[in-house]
Amino acid sequence: MFSKTPTFSSFSVNSLSEAKTFYHDVLGIETDDREHMINLKLADGKNILVYEKPDHAPATFTVLNFVVDDVDAAVDQLNAQGIVMLQYGGPIATDAKGIHRGEGGETIAWFADPAGNILSVLKSSML
Predict the structure, then answer these.
(1) Summary count for the chain: helices (H), strands (E)
(2) Per-residue pLDDT, 112
C-alpha cells in the first residue's frame, strides 16, 4: 500500500534552540527552520523533522544512526566536541571507550542529544 509513498521521520525535543545548536553546530548537519520545528537535511537526501514538545520524554531506543567508516575515529571526534558516549552492559556491553564491538563486524557507540534522545555511530557489515 505504501511502497511508493514518500516518507520521513520525526522526533521531539524539549528545546528547539538547543537541538538546532547541537545538530547544526556540533554534529555539522545542515538544518533549515520550519514553523515550530527544524529540518535535519541528511547526507542521503532524506530529511528528519525535529519538533519541540512541552512534555517531551526521550525515546528509550536509538532514534538516529550515523553510518561511519571508523567508529573509533567518530567517537574520538564526538568526545573532542564534549559528547560522552553512553555505557551499556549485558548483550550490548560497551568497552571503556563506549563502543560495543559485536560479532560479525557490528561496531556501534551510542550518545544522547541535549533532549536525551539516543543516537549512534555505527559500522555495520549488514549495510
Answers:
(1) 2, 8
(2) 98
